[in-house]
Amino acid sequence: METENNNMTPLLEIKDLHVSVNGEPILKGLSLTVSKGEVHAIMGPNGSGKSTLANVLAGREEYEVDSGSILYNGQDLLELDVNERALEGIFLAFQYPVEIPGVSNSNFLKSIINARRVHQGLPELNALEMLKYIQGKMESIEMDKNLLKRSLNDGFSGGEKKRNEILQMSLLEPSLSILDETDSGLDIDALRIVADGVNQLKSEDRAFIVVTHYQRLLNHIIPDYVHVLSDGKIVASGDKHLAEKLEAEGYDWIRETNSMTA
Amino acid sequence: MADQEKILDHLSEVFHAFESGLNGKAQSTLHHFQKESFASLKQYQFPDRKHEDWKYTIVQNIIAPPYTLADVNPRVEIEDIPGLDTYKLVVSNGQLLWDHIDPALKDAGIRLMRFDNMLDDESMRKDFNRVIKAERPSSNQAFAYLNFAFQSGAFAIDIPSGFILDKPIEIRIVHDGTDTTFSHPLYFIRAQKSSEVTIIERFEKNNSALSADHQGLINASAYLSVDKNASVTHYRWQNLPATYRLVNILAAQQERDSRFTSYAFDIGGQSVRNNIHVELEDSNTYSSLQAAYMAKNKQSIDHQTRINHKVPHCESHELYKGIIDDQASGAFNGKVLVHPDAQKTNAFQQNDSLVLSPHARMNSKPQLEIFADDVKCSHGATIGQLDQKSLFYLMSRGLQKEAAKHMLTAAFLAEVLDTVTIEPLSEYIRTKMSIDV
Amino acid sequence: MSDSMQTLEGHTQSEYKYGWSTELDMDTLPKGLTEDTVRAISARKNEPEWLLEWRLEAFRHWQQMEEPVWANVKFPPINYQDIIYFAAPKKKLNSLEEADPELLEMFDKLGVPIEERKVLAGVAVDAVVDSVSVATTFKKDLAKLGIVFSSFSEAVHSHPELVREYLGSVVPAKDNYFAALNSAVFSDGSFCYIPEGVKCPMELSTYFRINAANTGQFERTLIVAEKGSTVSYLEGCTAPMRDENQLHAAVVEIYAKEDANVKYSTVQNWYPGDKEGKGGIYNFVTKRGICAGDRSKISWTQVETGSAITWKYPSCILKGDDSIGEFYSVAVTNNHQQADTGTKMIHLGKNTKSTIISKGISAGRSNNSYRGLVKIGKRADGAQNFSQCDSLLMGDKCGAHTFPYLEVDNPGARVEHEATTSKIGEDQLFYCQQRGLSEEDAINMIVNGYCKEVFNELPMEFAVEAQKLLAISLEGSVG
Ligand SMILES: Nc1ncnc2c1ncn2[C@@H]1O[C@H](COP(=O)(O)OP(=O)(O)OP(=O)(O)O)[C@@H](O)[C@H]1O
Ligand SMILES: [Mg+2]
């Protein structure tokens, strides 16, 4: 689906989404609208459904959409296969990046870049152009070039895996990037690099959904909105100050306010 | 076992003498803790030779001498590591020397507290208890209880949430005296959410020691609580006099998204037993245990590691490299437990040894117990000699045999040392470890 | 089970491509095995007396032996009297031009280049159908270099002294149950001799095809590499789809002298049986090489995708000092296939080195075992071994087992062993697809990546074939 650059249409529009896994309801009426140029942070207790949301957007099959709708660029996202969504510009930085032994990182990167280019009607990059393109991006996120020769994520440290996710994101230049806890388990230096990667990609026509447990990421990637996901629903939304309050006070106060209003 | 009774009888005497010296503190939380610990020691007893984990270090040899408690020697002299900027603490015969504390540490933004104060601080005590409980049961618990029972000069450090300590904390540990004595250094470090801290622990010879050929046992323990998303790096450098025995326990408990890295470098001591235990409480943790050691003469260096994977998506690495020469012996016993729920575990273990003399011995026993099916685990053990071809090659280029040997052993240990990111420290260790190879 | 997992399983259930059979005019012995059978085979081939005696001795010994029982392989008892021990296309060939057009067509269909005109550059082929060799190509070119490359029966007549000297020198006639059976009834195979200092300029290749029904195939390959010679040898196999099980009990012997270098590659694609486990080849093969001379090297590479049951352990006896043994293996099992394969590296000489890389892939309800022995003898100072055994599981009804045996009698040896077991799962597929790759590309990428270290060891042409074969046995025809 070729996209009309219509600024009135939000990039992503989720309405009353209900999702279950193995018959167990996980998302229970979630609505969220993301427009181009925006950064949305999603926080929330463990098991509240953050990764579920990310996986549903990417099209993972074991997540069953029971009701509700997801529009992406005004079109029904649920119609598309996983790789079609990717080719249309949805990128998921995995909470646990997957290891594939024997598949060299460089080979993988080449394949995914060219798959996207072919989809966009662009010519494939030749080996030299490819190398230049990849190495340029690697430099900007201070990634060790030796990681290109190694197998995809295999034997990478946690930090290297997360950086590799950011590298792929920078290379594919997606319209909607979903970062699922990309900051978890990173030292402050690595955290800055990840944040830089996101900030470099930020533009008028891209949007980000950043799932995190730790407020300190949001000192580096300034969110336009912060949402709290609890028990499958967004229970509070605000700006970056909401994240600070959550860091200091935890989630209990939200649950209490909620049960009072419920 | 008769020996065991004799040893415990002796220890009881020493313990009562210790208690009677407590004066007004007899009703304190600390004394309660000491008494309980001694009772536990009597109940659990020391492991005997038949115990799998104690096959290569003979407990009796370590614990049998009639040790008494060492008095504190306040005069401690240790060389600085050139170019290394740290917050320094000194532990002499098990006691933190408060007047030796780096003054800068006061304003560093962390909390340093006496052990007895820690026991009275509800939240610290809770965390401490959690970590020591996770350490048990183990074949080392007798030594842990022995350490607790004789506790007086221990300390605790609390790193607040989100705090990133700018310099490593250097803990210098010495032991000396005139009789046959033991000491029981202990500390607890709590690294709270998203904090980062580096510890450099140094077991060294006191250059102002009272006696040069003093016999002794250091029974040291350290406990670490690594909270959510926190990062703790722990270096241990050990270059004790050749008359000392050392039993060392390092136990870390890791919460979600946390990182723990441990390095152990041993070149000193007579009989050295290192126990390290990592307990993974929540997912997405990273643990790395590495060691480089060199045993000569009749030294024995024994590494026991245990990593407990209880939850999914955790990753652990172990790399232990040792050089065994003369009549020395080395042992490595690495346990990795992967529980049924710990899917997507990545656990890698490697133990490489270079045996330089026909009388040197190395025993390597990797133990992977895996009860989950979607995991990636590997272990490897190599025991080899210096590669004669490489040696010949270097000599054919004009190097003396000793220099060529030196170059090859250094290259062997480099795999570990190259990953030490604190340059002055790795430089110092390189220099020390290559002395008279 | 999610959709993507179902497609994965679907892919693993594609059909065997070489399952057709050809109507050839055959000369066949009746079913059954007695001394007379052995004599009849020998007579059919005009063999010298010594060879008949050798066969008979093996046969008598075999009769005393018990069929081995293996822990991880299960099959109903084989009725050795219900097998045809000799079947040959009737037409005698003087040149390929005379070949039965049906036969040529068969090889065409298999994609085996036996017509010299059409041959891929640099591969000489010996084609074996059922019990006999039907065509050997490039013989004349090779002969100019002193290289002997011919069918076994021919070598018995043209180079009797060589055959007599080396036959059974690496795998004795009484070595094991199936080697003894083979020694008694082997019908043909390939013989290859590389003289001193000669580097064989092309890949030598044998192509085996079981065509006739109820027939066992018992071929023998013997490779002798003189001092300082080099040869690379390829072997490929297919068989028609038949409901009954067919027995294949081959023997391969390699003798390498000082500084000789022999590379033996196999792509085994015998009919594996159908999805319910009916039919298929029992592939019980003894392959062994001896590095008799100092600094000699034998390297086994195998890609095992076929057979109902595979039992084979290509081995190296490292007798010469500084000799090298290598074993690279990909074994794929699917549906009800069983494979018990691995290697034996016997280190006898000083500074001998061996490398073992084994990659098992199990899909369906199959079972895949690696069984390997590394033995370091008392005098093997400085011996080194590195073993890596990886298992890849597809789905959750299959099994992977690893049995490394280490016998080290020399304290100076250096032995390393690594093992991993992993699953190709939804996670990996989802990850690749989330980056825009199609499902088929993703599966291809993952499986080929896993086997890369072994494929790298194969000669170029074969590596491509092996990749395709893997794609077929696991995925169906991918793009
Ligand atoms: N594949 C699955 N099968 C069964 N249950 C699942 C599956 N994936 C998620 N769940 C369940 O759905 C709930 C939400 O999980 P989800 O991973 O979305 O939480 P999360 O908010 O991302 O948590 P965390 O902060 O721990 O990453 C949890 O109770 C989890 O156990
Ligand atoms: Mg999550």
Report what the structure shows.
The complex is a heterotrimer of chains A (262), B (437) and C (479). Chain A is an alpha/beta fold. Chain A has one domain: P-loop containing nucleotide triphosphate hydrolases (Rossmann fold, 3-Layer(aba) Sandwich), CATH 3.40.50.300. Chain A has 8 helices and 12 strands. In chain A, a hairpin with a 2-residue loop joins β4 and β5. The longest helix of chain A is centred in the middle third of the chain and has 15 residues, at 105-119. The termini of chain A are far apart. Chain B is an alpha/beta fold and 437 residues long. Chain B contains 9 helices and 21 strands. With 479 residues, chain C is an alpha/beta fold. In chain C, 24% of the residues lie in helices and 35% in strands. The radius of gyration of chain C is 22 Å and the shape is globular. Mean pLDDT of chain C is 78; it is low at 1-13, 116-122 and 475-479. Chains in contact: A-B, A-C, B-C. At the A-C interface, α2, β7, α3 and β8 of A face α9 and α10 of C. The complex binds adenosine-5'-triphosphate and magnesium ion. Adenosine-5'-triphosphate (ATP) is lined by residues 21-22, 26, 44, 46-52, 62, 95 of chain A.
Task: Record keyword descriptors for this entry.
heterotrimer; A: about 260 residues; alpha/beta; Rossmann fold; six-stranded mixed beta sheet; four-stranded antiparallel beta sheet; 8 helices; C: about 475 residues; ten-stranded mixed beta sheet; six-stranded parallel β-barrel; 11 helices; disordered C terminus; binds adenosine-5'-triphosphate; binds magnesium ion
Topology:
The complex is a heterotrimer of chains A (262), B (437) and C (479).
Chain A: E1 12-21, E2 24-34, E3 39-43, H1 50-58, E4 63-72, E5 75-76, H2 82-87, E6 90-93, E7 100-104, H3 105-119, H4 127-140, E8 151-152, H5 158-172, E9 176-180, H6 188-201, E10 207-211, E11 225-230, E12 233-238, H7 240-249, H8 252-261
Parallel strand pairs in A: 3-10, 3-11, 6-9, 9-10
Antiparallel strand pairs in A: 1-2, 1-4, 4-5, 7-8, 11-12
Helix pairs in contact in A: 5-6
Chain B: H1 2-20, H2 29-44, H3 59-63, E1 68-69, E2 87-92, E3 95-96, E4 111-114, H4 115-120, H5 122-135, H6 141-149, E5 155-159, E6 169-174, E7 181-183, E8 186-191, E9 196-203, E10 216-226, E11 231-238, E12 244-254, E13 259-266, E14 271-280, E15 286-295, E16 300-309, E17 315-324, E18 329-338, E19 346-355, E20 361-370, E21 376-384, H7 388-396, H8 401-417, H9 423-434
Parallel strand pairs in B: 1-7, 2-6, 5-8, 6-9, 7-10, 8-10, 9-11, 10-12, 11-13, 12-14, 13-15, 14-16, 15-17, 16-18, 17-19, 18-20, 19-21
Antiparallel strand pairs in B: 2-3, 4-5
Helix pairs in contact in B: 2-6, 7-8, 8-9
Chain C: H1 3-11, E1 26-28, H2 35-44, H3 49-64, E2 87-89, H4 101-110, E3 123-129, E4 132-136, H5 139-144, E5 148-151, H6 152-158, H7 160-166, H8 177-185, E6 188-194, E7 203-209, E8 219-225, E9 230-238, E10 245-248, E11 251-256, E12 261-268, E13 280-291, E14 297-304, E15 309-312, E16 315-318, E17 324-333, E18 338-341, E19 344-347, E20 353-362, E21 367-376, E22 384-394, E23 399-408, E24 414-424, H9 426-434, H10 439-455, H11 460-475
Parallel strand pairs in C: 3-7, 6-8, 7-9, 8-11, 9-12, 10-13, 11-13, 12-14, 13-15, 13-16, 14-17, 15-18, 16-19, 17-20, 18-21, 19-21, 20-22, 21-23, 22-24
Antiparallel strand pairs in C: 1-2, 3-4, 5-6
The complex binds adenosine-5'-triphosphate and magnesium ion.
